């Protein structure tokens, strides 16, 4: 329904099966998975503590739930069902930030004070941009989740991300319009870190290719969105790029429908969670969707099948941000496995992730060493049918190289 934070084709083209053997400290294991051995830890079976600071409640709670489910699935997959690395059980402590940066910082400091050396989570961009510096100040590993703001990439040497970023959304959106030179593009977004990041990314990508870019920004607290839909239509853009997240998305699409925006401009947005599909109504088939992930988008990679199986057995379904949690767990386990199950040397954990390529839910993923961007494929999607029958299909897979963000200078 929207380019989502947390940011969201005919027969599905299956991603090529990718297999790689990653040399670990003492053995060769499947990429993204770790062998577990009590003997490897020299008899030490002390637990490794991982703090998850995410939106358990608040406007992005649905995204946070998916992230948590994905993390648990990824931890099971990467540890071959043991929940331990080299004999060290991985213990998870959940902290609810409710999407509030102040609460997230407080939770992060509390966990760090309890000697947690690994933090993950951050459903919202504003949260990630506040927790990242705390991680650097205290030299703990921080793996941001669905938060899409580009500034998270290169924020500091201790900050990584397990999801996509706004630039990758924008690059995927740009693939729909071809030559941008001379085109007018309007970004309709919320006036928050996520929305502003999307405006900046569109100006960078499409503006850099010759398009004129402006923006209509709504306060995140706004519930009457008709004035903003009216402004977007009045701008008469060749492309309306919608970047939206949270509970007001339904009201936004209702307003856009009422203002008949779809008949006057090409609308590109991200496909949001499955529950949002019915909200588009008859307009669904008129929208071009860029996509980070939907269940089945990857065409059945080993990791995707494992994730879906785990989540289903636990009474839920994989969705837009389930892979972000899954990937975070893969990264945590790999970093620990490369250090024989120890989190004592944070710099060593960081080094083990930089430049790492592995087989993830969406196919091959790479942690770029220079700035910690997560290079990954994206999708062009069409939504067909209405109401409960609405179904997404991937029309095109955009390679990680096609949507790769420019290298960011590491800030600290």
Write the layout of secondary structure elements.
Blueprint: E1 21-23, E2 28-30, E3 48-54, H1 61-78, E4 84-85, E5 88-96, H2 101-113, E6 118-121, H3 125-138, E7 141-144, E8 159-161, H4 166-174, E9 184-190, H5 193-205, E10 212-218, H6 226-234, E11 239-243, H7 249-258, E12 266-270, E13 288-291, H8 302-313, H9 322-337, H10 346-353, E14 357-360, E15 363-367, E16 374-375, E17 378-384, E18 391-398
Parallel strand pairs: 3-5, 3-6, 6-7, 7-8, 9-10, 9-11, 11-12, 12-13
Antiparallel strand pairs: 1-2, 4-5, 13-17, 14-15, 15-16, 17-18
- What Rg, in angstroms, do the CA atoms define? 20 Å
Strand order of the largest sheet: 10-9-11-12-13-17-18
Q: Between the first and last Cα atoms, what is the distance in angstroms?
A: 35 Å
Q: pLDDT average, as an integer?
A: 89
**Quantity of strands, as a count:** 18
The helix fraction, in percent, is 25-40%
Question: What is the helix tally?
Answer: 10
- Major sheet: size, sense and barrel closure? 7 strands, mixed
What percentage of amino acids are in beta strands?
15-25%
Which regions have little confidence, pLDDT < 50, spanning 5+ residues? 7-42
Supply the helix-strand structural class.
alpha/beta
Shape: globular
Order of helices and strands: EEEHEEHEHEEHEHEHEHEEHHHEEEEE
């Amino acid at each position: 329904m929207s380019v989502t934070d947390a940011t969201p084709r005919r027969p599905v083209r299956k991603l090529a099966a990718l297999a790689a053997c990653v040399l670990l400290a003492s053995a060769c294991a499947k990429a993204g998975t770790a062998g577990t051995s009590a003997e490897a830890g020299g008899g030490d079976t002390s637990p490794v503590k991982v703090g998850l600071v995410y939106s358990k409640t608040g406007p992005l709670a649905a995204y946070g739930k998916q992230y948590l489910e994905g993390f648990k699935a990824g931890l099971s997959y990467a540890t071959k069902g043991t929940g331990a690395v080299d004999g060290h059980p991985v213990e998870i402590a959940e902290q609810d930030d409710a999407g509030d940066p102040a609460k997230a910082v407080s939770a992060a400091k509390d966990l760090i004070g309890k000697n947690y050396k690994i933090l993950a989570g951050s459903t919202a961009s504003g949260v990630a941009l506040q927790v990242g510096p705390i991680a650097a100040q205290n030299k703990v590993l921080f793996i941001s989740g669905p938060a899409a703001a580009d500034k998270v990439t290169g924020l500091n040497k201790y900050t990584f991300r397990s999801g996509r970023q706004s630039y990758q959304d924008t690059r995927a959106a740009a693939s729909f319009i071809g030559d941008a030179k001379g085109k007018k593009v309007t970004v309709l977004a919320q006036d928050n870190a996520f929305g502003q990041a999307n405006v900046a990314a569109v100006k960078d990508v499409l503006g850099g290719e010759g398009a004129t870019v402006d923006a209509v920004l709504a306060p995140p607290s706004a519930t009457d969105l008709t004035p903003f839909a009216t402004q977007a239509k009045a701008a008469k853009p060749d492309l309306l790029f919608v970047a939206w997240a949270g509970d007001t998305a339904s009201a936004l699409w209702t307003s856009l429908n009422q203002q008949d925006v779809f008949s006057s401009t090409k609308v590109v947005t991200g496909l949001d969670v499955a529950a949002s599909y019915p909200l588009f109504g008859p307009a669904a088939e008129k929208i071009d969707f860029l996509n980070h992930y939907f269940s089945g988008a990857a065409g059945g990679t080993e990791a995707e099948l494992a994730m879906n199986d785990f989540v289903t057995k636990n009474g839920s379904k994989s969705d837009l941000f389930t892979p972000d949690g899954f990937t975070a767990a893969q990264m945590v386990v790999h970093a620990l496995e490369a250090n024989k199950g120890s989190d004592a040397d944070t710099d060593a954990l960081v080094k083990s992730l930089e430049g790492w390529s592995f087989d993830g839910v969406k196919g091959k993923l790479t942690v770029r060493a220079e700035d910690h961007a997560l290079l990954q494929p994206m999708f062009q999607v069409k939504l067909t049918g209405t109401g409960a029958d609405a179904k997404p299909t991937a029309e095109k897979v955009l390679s990680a190289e096609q949507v790769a963000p420019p290298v960011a200078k590491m800030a600290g």
